[in-house]
């Protein structure tokens, strides 16, 4: 199936090195490309803040600044009250665009003199300072400008649009260097850049728009995508209507291991999520003291208990299951350690979450395994698996998820804003751009692991399980948060989830 450019993600270097070649192949000059970029920004501006709004455009020295100079000219022609605040234009295109603005007697003020008072007089600020490709900390001047802009935005409710990428944001990782413009809207050009789609990038970029500038198809012929976005159509393809003759045995038997005393809710949430996402049967294996608590929470569960005294005893309890979800409320006791070791040695598909991941981080010798393995870490768990700090994972989430998939030969989702998925044999990463801050609550991860186990049990292709599960979880979170992000509970996802798995 042919994917559209709206689903493809390319590294910044790929776009920077090939955009002019793609344009040349179509007979589009660099100045015409800059004109198209500015026109795309004007169209966004007119949709969001029609003229005669007061617009201040901050122009940097390069072609990102050139886009800003051209936008100033176009915006003033359609009735905006435009002020340009700029440093010296240094590229040929930027110099030409700056001169064209001055030739029409456009107002220009020095970037060094920008202050909060002047910003407060505007309705809209356009960030055309640096764009993509930043790999080091901002110079003092730009750091001060960004800090002043963010400060003014917070106090005066300015609307900020960034051109291509918010200034200060590393466009491949989504990390600020060390601060970045907090935009309300970002128009990026030709192709999605990875840093806009994960981690902190979404906070700084705000709403995103991809402007293909009429050359995206030609660019695509020159480069292979680094990653792809998950779309609803893909999810629906993997969840067709069930046959009228279907029965529970055809929809997977999920075994969840966990729910130690004091953490029984985690296993319950995972089990309920597995049922609500379509599992035929759900069993929960737990410690003896937790059995009655879990059984009373959901009558559809089959709840088993074990002291895990022998491997043979545990293997007998796994008989008849299609997939094991290990970790929700598991703990890291000797009981949990024995179970995890034996389960990973089995030939059953396994989903590891929570303390299952923490135990794996302490016992790498338990791998490799012959059967499929899915890992669902958040950044802290990923750091333990990679033997580094959480901040190291967040510095480059893409590198972290790729390293996890190769090191553990597993299907991996690195959770968080813009969840990322990888597998050692995959040609490209997957990105889930959906979701809500409502999912930032204890128990949400247990719901995801239950969905993952359910989809494995239902027989989805191994490589499709995490993209479909992550999208379902993220969009269910969006729906659950309609009444408000604060106070949304993981169990609130079950109603929307049931609807989403029946497209």
Which characteristics define this entry?
503 residues, alpha/beta, Rossmann fold, NAD
In short:
The protein has 503 residues and is α/β, with parallel strands linked by helices. It has helices spanning 12-25, 30-48, 63-77, 92-103, 116-120, 140-156, 201-205, 216-220, 232-237, 264-276, 291-297, 311-318, 334-344, 355-362, 379-386, 390-395, 397-408, 444-457, 462-480, 494-500, and strands spanning 8-9, 54-59, 81-86, 108-110, 124-128, 159-163, 185-189, 207-211, 227-229, 253-257, 281-286, 302-305, 323-326, 350-352, 373-375, 411-414, 419-422, 429-432. Helix 2 (30-48) packs across helix 3 (63-77).
Structure description:
The chain is an alpha/beta fold and 503 residues long. It folds into two domains: 5-224, Rossmann fold, CATH 3.40.50; 251-500, 3-Layer(aba) Sandwich (UDP-N-acetylmuramoyl-L-alanine:D-glutamate ligase). The protein is built from 20 helices and 18 strands. It has helices at residues 12-25, 30-48, 63-77, 92-103, 116-120, 140-156, 201-205, 216-220, 232-237, 264-276, 291-297, 311-318, 334-344, 355-362, 379-386, 390-395, 397-408, 444-457, 462-480, 494-500, and strands at residues 8-9, 54-59, 81-86, 108-110, 124-128, 159-163, 185-189, 207-211, 227-229, 253-257, 281-286, 302-305, 323-326, 350-352, 373-375, 411-414, 419-422, 429-432. The chain has an eleven-stranded mixed β-sheet, sandwiched between helices. It has a seven-stranded parallel β-sheet with strand order 4-3-2-5-6-7-8, with helices on one face. Helix 10 (264-276) crosses helix 18 (444-457), helix 15 packs across helix 17 and helix 18 (444-457) crosses helix 19 (462-480). The radius of gyration is 26 Å and the shape is elongated. The mean pLDDT is 96.
